[in-house]
Protein: DNA mismatch repair protein MutL
Amino acid sequence: DQLISQIAAGEVVERPASALKEILENSLDAGSTDIAVALQSGGIKQIKVSDNGNGIARDELNLALTRHATSKIASLEDLECVASLGFRGEALASIAAISRTQITSYHADEKHAWRVASEGSFLTDIEPAALDVGTIVDIQDLYFNTPARRKFLKTENTEFGHCEEAFRRVALSRPDVSLLLQHNGRAIMRLATGSAEKRFEDILGKDFAAEAFYLDESAAGLRLWGMAAKPTFSRHARDTQYVYVNGRFVRDKLISHAIRQAYQDVLHHDRHPAFVLFLELDPALVDVNVHPSKTEVRFRDGQAVHRFIFHALHKSLAAPVG
Ligand code: ADP
Ligand code: MG
Structure:
């Protein structure tokens, strides 16, 4: 049922930033090396993402938008279940169900680009379009058909802040991709490709780069690398705490705890630590899909991960900064 699928999508696409995250991940999945994000009114009015990835062939275009329109959601009781599953091949369809979405894409197998548009659940025919490379996903009027959901949105500025944070999380982990963020026609962040350190500095500022040290520790199939600052770095109003597991941004209690303990043990307090840390391990030892929209993870051996992170960070924090 259409109404129910709209409500479900509203639950899953919590706010414009949730949609932006999914769209950005799709661009990265498509092998893009250059991505431009243009937002209007905090993403509520428009989220437009242009990339130079592999694109979508004509026959796949419709599917990309309609996958969600299955019989999966049979009743209101299922909604909670849907929300907790988050996106599994249904992000675009969920977003399309509650917005005016247009996708234009060029795929090497086609003579020219194609475009498909949807308004809620109404799809247009696929039409030829002009685009030399990649994909443009243009989402307008998010929640236009779910007014109850729209009421939960905060101010334009707050929603933009969330979008900016989603953009930052992706950008920190992909210094090999150039990125542009625009809001209401103004360029907010322009990021050229380069080293990880350069990207951290571009996003987190010179203060962070100057005070943080580089670390890279490995043991028993686990690797922790990135930059961490001692808590003198407290001028930032915003928390600078980013953790990635196998390239995905996560917010994980176990990891946070290990980090906090290392700081506490060395510095005898854990106020305002600032860090960007990447944990890498055998993908078979971690489940990152526990809750995609809530960025939780589950480790096969949580204790080993905790111990490793604590020791790796402890060692780096305790060493004299050179
Ligand atoms: P998922 O990413 O889980 O497969 P999505 O709903 O996010 O599901 O996307 C549906 C499909 O649309 C993707 O599998 C991909 O084939 C295609 N797609 C979406 N965005 C892009 C893009 N920017 N470039 C190329 N293909 C894309
Ligand atoms: Mg996706």
Observations:
- Residues 22, 25-26, 91 surround magnesium ion (ligand 2) (CB under 6 Å).
